[in-house]
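Please fill in the sequence for the structure shown.

STRUCTURE ENCODING:
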């Protein structure tokens, strides 16, 4: 139960719990991927089962789809939904402008498509994800398997002319074999340390043949919900220019999520 969680999991839980306030009955909701997004799916599932919330969820990965069904959320495809009211997802890094690095969980392609097809994207995170400048977290780039080494070479050549502090990359592995995304692609993780111009890098990266999409989310996120291990939550809205604070009392829901795993 939440009161027995580590501070980091408490932070993720309170961020997810607060983010459910962005969701109303009748909405079509993009469901993110990762450990923080898993909290969100559980929280929404509880509202569906116990409070009569009626939503349709569009998951951003097969594992989120499975979890959403398991907790009682109706799952539809993006093509069925066409457009979403809100997407709520985690992030690997976010900066002061709410630009993001995503894809640590390997779902960046579906995540970017779903977030872009939403009226609003809300990121849920613990405070460790906030950075001055993006790039300490390796930037995931989804590439097609055909000729991936050539694509890697082209990416590394491109990086020489970019405002970054590193230019090495590694094929993401799953044990002894390359990691395969839900779309059947591979991921190159770029070790850049610091990305001076994330907007430019995102645009030029996607011009390379073989690159499907990169994990920079520029001007996509509207609000970030930041959780802390002591139950504090901040909601920063980039459009309104506001930051709201609240606090979650863990004793309120001591019976929730005892079996949470991701
Ligand atoms: C998956 C993602 C995740 O949102 C990101 O990796 C954060 O995950 P977590 O909440 O587990 O820290 O982009 O592709």
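FILLED IN BY: designer on duty
SEQUENCE:
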């Amino acid at each position: 139960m939440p009161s027995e969680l580590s501070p980091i999991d408490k932070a993720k839980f309170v961020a997810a719990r607060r983010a459910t306030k962005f969701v109303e009955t009748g909405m079509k909701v993009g469901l993110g991927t990762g450990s923080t997004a898993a909290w969100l799916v559980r929280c929404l599932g509880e509202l569906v089962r116990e409070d009569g919330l009626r939503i349709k969820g569009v998951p951003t990965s097969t594992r989120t789809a499975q979890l959403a069904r398991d907790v009682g959320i109706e799952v539809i495809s993006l093509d069925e939904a066409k457009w979403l009211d809100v997407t709520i997802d985690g992030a690997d890094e976010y900066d002061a402008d709410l630009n993001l690095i995503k894809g640590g969980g390997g779902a960046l392609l579906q995540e970017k498509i779903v977030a872009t097809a939403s009226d609003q994207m809300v990121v849920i995170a613990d405070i460790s994800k906030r950075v001055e400048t993006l790039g300490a977290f390796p930037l995931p780039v989804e590439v097609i398997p055909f000729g991936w080494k050539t694509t890697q070479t082209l990416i590394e050549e491109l990086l020489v002319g970019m405002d970054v502090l590193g230019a090495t990359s590694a094929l993401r592995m799953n044990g002894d074999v390359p990691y395969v995304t839900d779309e059947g692609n591979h991921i190159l993780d770029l070790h850049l340390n610091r990305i001076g111009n994330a907007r430019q890098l995102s645009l030029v990266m996607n011009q390379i043949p073989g690159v499907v999409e990169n994990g920079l989310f520029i001007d996509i996120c509207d609000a970030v919900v930041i959780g802390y291990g002591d139950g504090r939550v901040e909601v920063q809205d980039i459009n309104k220019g506001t930051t709201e604070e609240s606090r979650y009392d863990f004793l309120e829901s001591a019976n929730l999520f005892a079996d949470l795993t991701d």
